[in-house]
Amino acid sequence: MKRIATTIGLVALGAGAATAGGIDRSGQNIGILFEQGRYAEFSFSHSKPDVSGTDEPLAIFPGGGSSGDVAKNFSQFGFAFKDDINDRLSYAVIYDEPFAADIEYGPGSFNLATPNNGGTVAKAHAHALTAILRYKFDENFSVHGGLRAQQADGHISLRGAAYWNPFAPGPGSGFDGYNVDLKRDWAPGYVLGVAYERPEIALRVALTYQSSIKHEFDTLESGTGVARGESVTEVKTPQSVNLDFQTGIMADTLLFGQVRWVKWSEFLVDPQNFLANPLSGGEGLIGLDNTITYTLGIGRKFNDTWSGAASVSYEQKDNHLISPLAPTNGRIGLTLAAIYSRDNMKITTGVNYTALGRAAPETGTPDTARADFRDNDAVSVGVKVGFAF
User: Is the entire prediction scored with pTM above 0.85?
Assistant: First the structure.
């Protein structure tokens, strides 16, 4: 049962490809903290999202054109190490890639065939290193907490008719042609949590809070709609809460799940010169709704060597009008995983399929749908290798 219980983290494999427009990638899992003894693990996953839509009519543009596949394939790496200091105190060091975006609309020249967001690009990446201590009061109750160092950067380019101002002459008279670079920055955060366990029935409930992290990016804005210039842009990656639970329900069978809340409403990108243009309406480049993601699954030990798990994840839809830089809205996914254990090694492989909810990328003041995205999905595969020593 412990073999299953401590490898379930990968059962959410690749689900981040479909959450909050692909921005939430790792789920910030700290499950290694509950491994027995000294333990190290390495993970790799590859995701192939398929996110596309068709243009809505806009001014003199008839609509109906394809956006192309705007979400690019991506890979992720992870590493974690855990060890005991004494019978009550242990620690873990975790490297993950918690947030990222790789959105790129199909190119086009400014004419009737151009997608409303044709040429728009949003790229961002965050790397984080977390050091956590866990203190056990007894076999049932424990607390954990630590510090997190995060590096992030980003680039956004706005292109297409959706960013053109029809009340001024000529193409590129709004924000069509705007660029912003957010240069690499390090910033600190923290982690706090509590757990309750009953080892005899493989029961564990763990509540973990991840703080928001405020970056101060050196920023360069250029192109249409703004004066070229340098400034500093404050961006918070969102705070989150993970409620993880598991319990044995019969011999060699485990029920597990997670509820993850992320405060995306505090993730704002408001460059100085962009906001200074009255055409921005006082709104920044990105606006996302908070999300709650539910996961429920079953793990089963078949013999001393093989175990398996299956889970379903669900994220509710919110306002169908969403940012073109994060063009998904809600999801439902299925993950299957196989776990091979031998001596001090265990290998977990998994595959995830996620159906993405219908969404309408919007721009303008008031917000206006520029495209209709539907029938999209994402497929991910991955492997985790762990060693006890």
Answer: yes
pLDDT digits (tens, 9 = 90+) for 226-274: 878 999 999 999 999 999 999 999 988 999 999 999 999 999 999 999 9
CATH assignment of the domain containing 59: 2.40.160.60
- Residue carrying structure tokens 């962009």: 274
Distance CA 106, CA 98 (A): 26
Q: What is the rounded CA–CA span in Å between residue 97 and residue 46?
A: 13
Q: Report the alpha-carbon distance of residue 224 to residue 177 in Å, rounded.
A: 5
Separation between Cα atoms, residue 107 and residue 49, nearest integer Å: 19
C-alpha span between 73 and 284 (Å, rounded): 27
Distance CA 128, CA 188 (A): 9
Domain count, the chain: 1
Range of the domain at 339: 2-388
DSSP sequence for 35-77: SSSSEEEEEEEEEEEE--EEEPPBTTB----B----BPPEEEE
Distances (CA, A) of 142 to 34, 86, 193, 201: 10, 14, 9, 17
